[in-house]
Amino acid sequence: MSQDKPLLKGKRKKRAWNSNHYPKMITVRLTNEEHQQITLRAKLARTSASRYLVHRGLHNKLLKFRPALPPLDAGQREPIERLLYELNRVFLALSKLNHSLHLSFKTAADTVTKDEIKQALSEVSRLIEKSKELL
Questions:
Q1: Is the dihedral of CA 36, 38, 39, 45 positive or negative?
Q2: How far apart are CA 115 and CA 120, in angstroms?
Q3: Less crowded by CB within 10 Å, the N or C end of the chain?
Q4: How far is CA 130 from each of CA 5, 69, 97, 117, 125, rounded to the nearest angstrom?
Q5: Mean pLDDT across 38-52
Q6: % helix / strand / coil in the chain, to the nearest 5?
Q7: How many CA atoms lie within 13 Å of 134's alpha carbon, on the beta-carbon side?
Q8: CA pair distance 87, 120, nearest whole angstrom
Q9: Per-residue pLDDT for 65 more than 80?
Q10: Could you give the CA distance from residue 99 to residue 91 in angstroms, rounded to a whole number?
Q11: How high is the mean pLDDT of the chain?
Q12: Which of 85, 26, 91 is nearest to 54 (CA)?
């Protein structure tokens, strides 16, 4: 086995991007406006600017834009934000239960009760139903 040589002072190790999958690189110079337009179009196509330019250059056509959520007004936004808040709260509670359950396996102590698990599952079911109503 060979040992890695220490880097010489002032020398930087070359970054090995994704060289197996994309072994070649092209540098492109853009104005601020061009950069803004290309990154916006790449975001709308939900891809990187690099992949957007490759596709555009090789196929001479635009990538199909993937559907995004439509903009919401204040009346629609509030229930969805509340749902996201509740989902986060339930996620944290489930993470705590999971952690306690793993500790109980290691220490052979019953730190999680069946009632706690049933309560968490009913909360998840409630939020699933609520999300179906909203979406």
A1: positive
A2: 9
A3: N
A4: 59, 18, 23, 20, 9
A5: 87
A6: 60, 0, 40
A7: 17
A8: 11
A9: no
A10: 12
A11: 78
A12: 26
Distance CA 120, CA 29 (A): 54
| Average pLDDT for 90-103 | 84
Structure token pair of residue 42:
């790449």
* 10 Cβ contact partners less than 8 Å away, ≥ 6 residues apart: none
Angle between helices 114-134 and 74-107 (to 10 degrees): 160
Q: Which long-range contacts (CB under 8 A, 24 or more apart) does 8-16 make?
A: none
Burial 36-61 (b: 16+ CB within 10 A, else e): eebeebbeebebebeebbebbeeeee
Q: Which of the 8 DSSP states describes residue 9?
A: T
CA dist 98 to 31, 101, 127, 132, Å? 51, 5, 19, 26
Q: Where are the domains of the chain?
A: 15-67, 74-134
Amino acid at 84: L
Q: In whole angstroms, what is the distance from residue 54 CA to residue 9 CA?
A: 37
Look up tokens 């070649």; give the residue: 24
Identity at 118, one-letter amino acid code: K
